[in-house]
Amino acid sequence: MTHVVVLTAQAGVPDDFLAEAEKICGATPRRLGPRSADIDGTAGMAAELHAALGGSVDVNLVAKAGRAKRLLIADMDSTIIPVECIDEIADVAGVGARVAEITERAMQGELDFEGALRARVGLLRGLPVEALETVWTERVSLNPGARALVQTMNARGAVTALVSGGFTYFADRVAEAAGFRFAQANTLLEDGGRLTGEPGEPILGRQAKLDALERLCAEHGIGLEAAIAVGDGANDLAMVEAAGLGVAYHAKPALAAKADAVLAVSDLTALLALQGIPEADYAA
User: Quick check: 111 pLDDT over 80?
Assistant: First the structure.
């Protein structure tokens, strides 16, 4: 067969699930570790397994050819970290509900990202820059599996890049914490120790993420088919569609509908399982 069905779950993939997979696929499953396994299969078999096991495990079909990727490009907010930084800043500023509503509509693809970002940043005008440090220290953390994902890709010689529609204040720190080799994001302008309510130009949105993917591939001699991209919202759609393996992580429907793989109950190490990498080979 030319494809494998990959089973992943943060809580673990039980042995009886693998027995069901063997019955449906007519092949012997391979355990990649407690949280992952794969088995030769077809799209029809994957659909049958999803109907039988979906909700408890993520079931995805991946081509065998070129399965291991040479470039990882990832969104930050609600992907590598569990929060939307601008929503957290707004909460500290006392305009959380207004900004969160705009964020949600933008991530669902209902609003133009650039306009939505300007509107949200405008509500932060006058906020002391020190508030960003409060958000960083009290509200930002890495999602489960983030560091293992990035460090394992680094150890395998892959290019790793964090591309965010958020802000450099957080993206640079998150990139360092997870181990990304490259990072890009928007800037928050300040004057006299307070936010001006304006983002730096140009605003980096959906197209900028695709441009970053294409630029990094060109610079490192990597074909788009050898890239894996992961995100959660409509702003990630272009890069997820362009990459050889596009992954929707705990994602909005607009992205999940277009992605090659959808992760709803797995941590970020599932991106390694999709590439056939055993858990024993994880770098962290």
Answer: no
87-110 confidence digits (pLDDT tens): 999 999 898 898 888 888 887 878
- pLDDT tens for 200-247 read 999 998 999 999 999 999 999 999 999 999 999 989 999 999 999 999
C-beta neighbour count of 50 within 10 angstroms: 18
Domains within the chain, CATH numbers bracketed: 1-65 (3.30.70), 69-83+142-284 (3.40.50.1000)
Task: Point out the catalytic residue in the list 38, 58, 77, 236.
Answer: 77
> Is 77 labeled as catalytic in the residue annotation?
yes
Task: Give me the mean pLDDT over the 175-193 stretch.
Answer: 97
Active-site residue (options: 75, 87, 232, 267): 75
